[in-house]
Recover the amino acids of this structure.
DNA sequence: GCCCGATGTGTGCGCGAGCACAATCAGATA
DNA sequence: TATCTGATTGTGCTCGCGCACACATCGGGC
C-alpha cells in the first residue's frame, strides 16, 4: 500500500532503524489509515518460541485449596497449549521453609521464562525475587503481596478486609454482648501465617467499631490430633456454655464442623476457603458461612498474567485483589469454576 | 514419521477418505505415539475464516446492567480479534416486544455465524431460535433458559434460588414476626418479568420454611415518578411504622435507597444487581445487601461459548448457572471484573 | 495395445508475521 | 572510470496447517 517492501515495513514496526524518513512517513500513514494491529496468532506461529513457566506452590491433597488453584493452572495450560506454553509444577512443604529454599537453585537452572510464586515464606521469596530480577525473569505472586519485589502481578485477597467481613457476618448472628470463640490450630513447627494474623485484626476491628461488648475466647487446638481436640472442645464448651458462635481464620473449619455435627450441637461457625470438606459442612449446616476467593480463577490468572506480559506484551495490572466471596448453604452450589 | 506425505495425513485427520487401510494404520499409530494435537493457531491462520457474531440485548445507559454485560463482550472481542471474530451489537427496547421482533429479519439477512440472545420476550425468542436452528446458526441465551430451544449454551442465574438467598439475608436481620415490605416498580406497558416472579417465589419459600410469622406488605411504585413515589412511601411508612426492612426484586433498589437516605432514615433494604447507582447506596448504607451475578463474566462467556463451539470445536456445557454473589458494603470494593 | 475411471498419494501455495541475507544505489575514494 | 562503503531496501525462507490440484497405479472394456 505504501509502495515499499514488507522488509521495510517490518523494520518500521519493530523500529530496527535503517529506514529513510520518507519511507517511515509513508508507512506510518498507511498503518494509521488501516488501523493496523499485528495478528498475534501469526506472530506466535512465526516466532515459534517456547514458553516454559514454573509454578512454586505448596504440595496438596485432592480437594484442598492448592489443588483447586492448580485446576486453574491446568486450565490455563490447556488454553495456551497452542502458544507453546508449558508449565512445570514445583511443590514445597508449606510447613518447611527449607523445602522452598531447596527449589531456588532448581529454578535458576531451569531456563524458564516466568515463575508463579506462592508467598508462604516471605524472606525466601524476597531472595528468590531478587535473583529473578537479576535474571530478568518475570514472576507473579499469589497469596500475599510483598512490597520489595518487582513482580509482574499479584493475585490474592486483602486479608484484613476479609476478616472485617467475617466480623460482620458473625456479629449479625449474635447479641451485641454475647461471648464468642476464636479457634486456632497449632501444628508443631508451623508458624502463624501473616494472612491469618491480618484476618484476625480485621475481624476484631469490626467488632470494636460496633462496640461489641462480649468476650472473645481463644481456643488452641492441635492439627491431626482429633481425640485431644475433642476433649479440649468438650472442656471449653462445658465451661462456657453461653458460647455458641465462633470463627476460625484458616481452612480447617471442617474439623470443628465435624465435631459439632457429631455432637449434634448447633453452633454458628464461620470459616475460610471453599475446600471440599468445608463445603460438606456448609451443606450439613455445621458451618454457617465460608469466606472465600476463587482459587481456580487465581491460578488461571497467574498464568495468564505471565502470558499477557510475555507473549501478548500487554500491560498487566500489578496488584489484583480477588473478590471476597460470601458462601452459605444456599449459594454454594452455584460456586462453580467460571474461568 | 509414518513414511507418507502430509496430504495423506491430512486426509486421515479430517477423514476425507481415499486412504488405504495400510496408510491409515501407520499414521494413526504415529498420531497416538506422539500424542498429536493440532495447533489451533496455525489452523486458524490457514483457514482465514471470519466469524461474525451478533448480540441481541436491551439498549442501556452507562453503568447499568446491560452496559456491564457489554464490557464483557468488548473484552471478548478484543481477545478474539486475531481470530477474526467480529461482533455486531443489536439493541432492542426491553419494554417493547416489537422492537425485538423487528431485529429478527435483520439477523437472518446478516450472514452471521453466531448469535447471543437476551431472553426478555420468550415467544419471540422461541421463534427466532427455531429460525436459527433451520439456518444452522448456533446461538447462546442469556438471562432465562428456554427449554424448547437448541441453544449452544445458556448463562444466567437461578432466579428462584437467588430469591431464596435474599430470604435468608433479610430474615437474619429481623425478628421472626417482624413485618416487612416488598417494593415493586410498575412502568406503563411493562409486564412483570418472569425472573422477578421467580425471585419472589424463592424469597417467600425461604420465609415459609422458617415459619416466618410477620406480614409481607406489597408497595407499588411507579418508575420515573419520583414525587409520586415519595408520597406513596411517606404514606406507607406513616401507616406502618413498624416496618423497617424490605426487598425489591429488580435493579431499582437505588431509587428506594435514595429515598431513605434523603429522609435520613435507616431501613434494611435488599436489592439486586451491581449497577453503579446501587453500589453508591451500598456504600452509603442505604442498601444493606445486593444480590448479583457478574454481568461482565456473563457477557464474556457468551461470546467465548460461541468461539469455543465454532472455532475450537470444543464441547460447551449447555446450562451454566452463574454464581450468586452476596455483596455488602464491606466486600463491594473488591467486586472487580475478573474475567 | 489403448483409453478410461477409480482409487491412492504427493506437491505446492498461502495464511500473516519474523528474520537473515541479498541487492541496490549514491557518493567518496583511488 | 573502477572499486569500495554505508545507508537503504527487497527477497526468500519458515512456522503448522488446510486445501486444491497434479500425479501414479491398477483393472476393465473396446
Amino acid at each position: 500500500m505504501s509502495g515499499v517492501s514488507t522488509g521495510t515495513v517490518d523494520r518500521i514496526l519493530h523500529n530496527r532503524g535503517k529506514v529513510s524518513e520518507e519511507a517511515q512517513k509513508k508507512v506510518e500513514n498507511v498503518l494509521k489509515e488501516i488501523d493496523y494491529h499485528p495478528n498475534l496468532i501469526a506472530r506466535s506461529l512465526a516466532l515459534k518460541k517456547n514458553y516454559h513457566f514454573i509454578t512454586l506452590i505448596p504440595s496438596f491433597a485432592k480437594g484442598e485449596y492448592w489443588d483447586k488453584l492448580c485446576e486453574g493452572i491446568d486450565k490455563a495450560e490447556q488454553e495456551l497449549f497452542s502458544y507453546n506454553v508449558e508449565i512445570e509444577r514445583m511443590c514445597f512443604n508449606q510447613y518447611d521453609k527449607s523445602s522452598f529454599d531447596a527449589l531456588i537453585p532448581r529454578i535458576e537452572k531451569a531456563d524458564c521464562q516466568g515463575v508463579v510464586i506462592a508467598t508462604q515464606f516471605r524472606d525466601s521469596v524476597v531472595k528468590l525475587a531478587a535473583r529473578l530480577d537479576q535474571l530478568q525473569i518475570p514472576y507473579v505472586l499469589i497469596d500475599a503481596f510483598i512490597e520489595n519485589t518487582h513482580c509482574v502481578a499479584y493475585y490474592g485477597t486483602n486479608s484484613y478486609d476479609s476478616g472485617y467481613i467475617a466480623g460482620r457476618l458473625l456479629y449479625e448472628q449474635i447479641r451485641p454482648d454475647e461471648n464468642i470463640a476464636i479457634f486456632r490450630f497449632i501444628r508443631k513447627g508451623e508458624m502463624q501465617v501473616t494472612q491469618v494474623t491480618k484476618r484476625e485484626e480485621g475481624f476484631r476491628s469490626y467488632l470494636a467499631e460496633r462496640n461489641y461488648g462480649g468476650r472473645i475466647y481463644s481456643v488452641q487446638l492441635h492439627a491431626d490430633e482429633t481425640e485431644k481436640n475433642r476433649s479440649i472442645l468438650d472442656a471449653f464448651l462445658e465451661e462456657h456454655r453461653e458460647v455458641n458462635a465462633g470463627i476460625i481464620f484458616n481452612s480447617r473449619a471442617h474439623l470443628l464442623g465435624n465435631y459439632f455435627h457429631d455432637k449434634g450441637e448447633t453452633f454458628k461457625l464461620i470459616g475460610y476457603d471453599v475446600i471440599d470438606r468445608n463445603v460438606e459442612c456448609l451443606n450439613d449446616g455445621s458451618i454457617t458461612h465460608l469466606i472465600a476467593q476463587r482459587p481456580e480463577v487465581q491460578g488461571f490468572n497467574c498464568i495468564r498474567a505471565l502470558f499477557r506480559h510475555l507473549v501478548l506484551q500487554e500491560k498487566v495490572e500489578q496488584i489484583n485483589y480477588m473478590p471476597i466471596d460470601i458462601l452459605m448453604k444456599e449459594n454454594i452450589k452455584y460456586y462453580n469454576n467460571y474461568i
